[in-house]
Each structure stands twice: as structure tokens, then as C-alpha cells.
Amino acid sequence: MKKYVYNTSIILLIVLLSCSTTNQQVSINNKEPNSPRIESVNTTLGVPADQDSADDYIIIRPQYVLSYNPNRNVANWVSWNLDSSWYGDVPRYSGNFITDTSLPDSFYKVKHSDYTNSGYDRGHMVRSEERTKTVEDNKSTFLLTNILPQRPDLNRGVWLNLENYCEDLCKKENKELFVIAGGIFHSENKIKDLVAVPDSFFKIIVLLNRDESLQSITDTTKIIAVVMPNKNGIRNEPWWNYVTTVRRIEQSTGYDFLSNVKKEIQEVVENSLFVYDKK
Asked: What are the angstrom distances between the C-alpha of 23 and each of 154, 163, 222?
């Protein structure tokens, strides 16, 4: 059984009810040795937590929940729900990527220009296409707290192919997905000494039938877990080449995922490898 000791400092939760700059800040004294409880469909399976909450600044939006790291100026993880109801006809936001002015004054606020000429794409965690029901939903995905530096061949190739597979699961197979994504950092590489660059990216996708939720998860529930290197030269590789286990991602990131799932079920599904049917 996994054991974690959590920092009991106060965790600030920003509840963002829209993409406006009017936000409600909520302070929670997290005295219990577990992750904070957040009432959001986007964290149905649990709020990822590691041994030190000091660099986990939790941001809650209707479209997703994320942990922002003020030392790296990127998210530690982003968590969201996905089914066909999130897709619509709203066109992709056409402006510059958006500085998240909701962050505390003491945090550096990443700008669109910080990525310019860096050799890295502004890589969405929650894909723009996955939030096209309303203008507000789509615009929220362009906030730079939802963005991490990705090499073009990752962002526009194999990572995109997995995003397209998720879209097909929702639209063609009527699936209910719970997704967590973020970076894995082993080096100190940064853009302009400001924005930390992950060495690789992880994604965890729990596959359920439409309108199923936490109670529907069993030891046979399928989970796609991948770790993809943040490099060029992999654009045309199949995403299933990078399948791993949730447990290995936990070991690489230090985060405990799927904490709301029963422990005996976690032990099975977090050690299971997804087998892709190529037919």
C-alpha cells in the first residue's frame, strides 16, 4: 500500500467561475493526511497530491482543475472530464495565448511572447477542441496556466494522435473519460530562464461508458497511461508505443493519482498495461 506524508500548510484554491478576472479565493487548512477535497466533475477520481503541497497552487475552473507550480511557472498536472457533451461548434479562439492574471501577485505570470522563437510549441493540456461548447470554455484552454512547452513533433504528431483517439472514443463510442496530464521533469531546462521544460509528458485516461462515474470503476476498467518524450523526430510514431502504467507515472512524478478509487482496485488498475486493438 502506498504511503504519503502531505504538507499541512494552507492550500489556496482559486475558484474560477469564468475566464474573467473576477475570481473567488478560498483558503483551506488541510490538516488531514490526504489530498484536498474539490467538488468538481473534473476531479471525480481524486485530486493528485505529492509529499509537498507547497508548490501545488490549485486552480479550479468549470472546464478543468490544475495544480500550478510557481517555481517552474507551469502546471504540475491538469485534470478534466471528457465526453461528447464538451464538444460543440464554437470556433477556436484566434487571439494570443492568455496571461493568467488570476495568479497571486508574487507569482511570475507567463506571457505569450515568452514562448516566441523558443523552438517549443505552446502545448495545451486540455485541448482546445475538447472545450468547444461555449466561447468561454474554449478561451479557458488558452490561458497559459493550461500550457506547457512541447516540441512540435510531439505536440502536432503523436500527442495529437492520442487526443484524436480520445475524441473518437467520446463521439463514436459514447465513452466517459477522466483525464490527467502534465510534465515529468528530470533536468532544469527552461525557456528564457522562466518557463520550465518537461523532459517528457504523461497522460492518464480512465475509460468508462457514458454517464458512468467513480462507482463504476472495477479492477477490469481500462486505463490508458502514456509517457512521451518531449523531443522532435517522433511525429509519426503511434501513440501506443508509449503505453506504460499509472504506477510508473506515480514513481516518476511523485504524485498519487486516482486517490478516490478503492485501494484494492487501484492496486490492480494502476499496474495494468492498456492493450490497443489496432483493428
From this structure: 34, 30, 37
> Could you identify the residue written with the cell 457514458?
210
Provide the grid cell at 205.
485516461
**pLDDT-based confidence at 26, cuts 50/70/90?**
very low
Q: Does residue 68 register a pLDDT over 70?
A: yes
Residue 37 pLDDT? 75
Strands 10-15 and 57-60, by their bridges, are parallel
Three-state DSSP class for 240? helix
Considering the candidates 124, 127, 139, 151, report the single residue annotated as catalytic. Answer: 124
To the query of whether residue 124 is one of the catalytic residues in this protein, the response is yes
Q: Please compute the mean of the pLDDT values over residues 59-71 and round it to a whole number.
A: 98
- How does residue 251 score in pLDDT terms, banded at 50, 70 and 90? very high
Instruction: Give pairs for 158-164: CB < 8 Å, separation 24+.
Output: 158/228, 158/234, 158/235, 158/236, 158/237, 158/238, 158/239, 158/241, 158/242, 159/123, 159/201, 159/228, 159/239, 161/238, 161/239, 162/203, 162/224, 162/226, 162/239, 163/127, 163/129, 163/130
pTM of the model: 0.89
- Alpha helices of the chain — where are they, by DSSP H? 135-140, 152-153, 159-172, 246-253, 263-269
Q: Domains in the chain and their CATH numbers?
A: 78-269 (3.40.570.10)
Q: What's the confidence (pLDDT) of residue 277?
A: 82
Task: With cut-offs at 50, 70 and 90, classify the pLDDT of residue 35.
Answer: low
Which among 124, 151, 121 is positioned nearest to 235, based on CA atoms?
151
List CB contacts of 204: < 8 A, sequence separation 6 or more. 179, 180, 181, 223, 224, 225, 246, 249, 257, 258
